[in-house]
Amino acid sequence: MFQKWNLNKIEMKREILAGTTSFFAISYIIMVNTLILSEAGMPKELTIFGTIFISIIGSLMIGFFANAPIVLTTGMGVNSFFTYTLVLSLGLTWQQALAVSFCAGVVYLVVAFTRLSKLFAEVVPETLKTGITVGIGFFLVLIGLEKGHLIEQGAHTFLQLASLKEPVTLLTLFSLFLTLVLYLKKIQGSFFIGIVIVTIVANLLGLVNTTEHFSLAGISDYSTILFKMDFGPILTKNFFLGVFALSMILIFESMGLLKGLMPDASEQQYLKAYRITGFITMLSAIFGTSPTVAAAESATGIEEGGKTGLTAITSGICFIFALFALPLLSYIPDAALAPAIIITGFLMIQQIRTLDFGDFSDYFPAMLMIVLIPFTMNISDGMAFGFVAYPLTKWLAGKKSVLSLPMWIISALFLVYLIVNVVI
């Protein structure tokens, strides 16, 4: 079975450990995505299965067919767009929002299976690719700090340091120290070991509050959200705006995530991963959940040594086990997961050293991405500002010769995306 990856026993162990680590780092999506979709009127006890099933299929497919160490699951930010923009702002039902997701997936696949995908990938300058990677790194750090209750919304500022008297905050600090020691001592599986130890400690000390309880019993009614896309308003303005905006998010966010997570991937491997991501995105609507993306938390497994599709397959198998362990997932505290996410984010931030700080017109668009991705908590919005700013700054600096027509077109599309967001 493992001849496909040409791995020895030590490498197999490393890949399996990496996949398990990636799963635990992203496992919160099972509960969080379910809660966000419930605000769109979707039943929590059923959407949790859609989230798990599409994560299983996506991770297995990208592992087997693209040989990429990437977890495909429902995307944070995209799920918020699904609920708060498509349903609550545009007034679509969740069934119609699923139809929008399906159509956006079709548009994505048209791009993925034509020369457009290669063209888009080639014309994007290195400075913007670096901006995406570093921006996602800061995004992960912010998520980790928030999940670990180290930062919180302030009374007079949008963020402030949380009280160090809180037991949960102290647990996160202990978890971060433990994980750092394991990582710096180069102990294989440092992230996973940290998660296990802190989970045990947290439960022994009674620091885990289980507010949501799910079980496999509800799967008998899952068919009630399968194939429920409603294409009735397909010719209306709101439906079209939804499809356009979501298509832009999916096409370029997936491109940015995959490039950021797999900077050394071959063109063929990247293209396979990109196409599979598009197919799973379209499939997610059929399964009754929000669109999928490559999880940024896949970087935790990659940092553990995951290099092949076996990492993704392991994560997919973990999602299968999650079906039978739904009540147990709630016993893993955020404090156990936060350090892996924080450390991985800082490792991605290291790429900032490749920016040319001697050329303001070069690094300004990248820095816009780096700042706006975490501060808006939205990868697509941050990317949009960077892509719009790049040709503008180059043109103002008298360097129009470095700009190609496709780059102008991409920039214009992102400008339209931002305008559509304002309109919506």
Report on the architecture of this protein.
With 424 residues, this protein is mainly alpha-helical. The chain has helices at residues 9-26, 28-38, 44-66, 78-87, 94-112, 115-123, 126-147, 167-184, 190-204, 237-261, 267-286, 298-303, 309-324, 326-329, 334-349, 360-376, 379-396, 405-423, and strands spanning 72-74, 151-152, 160-161, 292-294. The protein has a two-stranded antiparallel ribbon with strand order 1-4. Strand 2 and strand 3 (160-161) form a beta hairpin.
Main sheet overview:
2 strands, antiparallel
Mean pLDDT: 87
Measured distance between first and last alpha carbons: 50 Å
Oligomer: single chain
What share of the residues does DSSP label as strand, in percent? under 5%
Low-confidence stretches: none
Structural class designation: mainly alpha
Helicity range: 55-70%
Give the ordered list of helices and strands: HHHEHHHHEEHHHHEHHHHHHH
Based on CA inertia axes, which overall geometry fits?
globular
Radius of gyration: 21 Å
Q: What is the count of β-strands?
A: 4
Main sheet strand line-up: 1-4
Number of helices: 18
Number of structural units classed as domains: 1
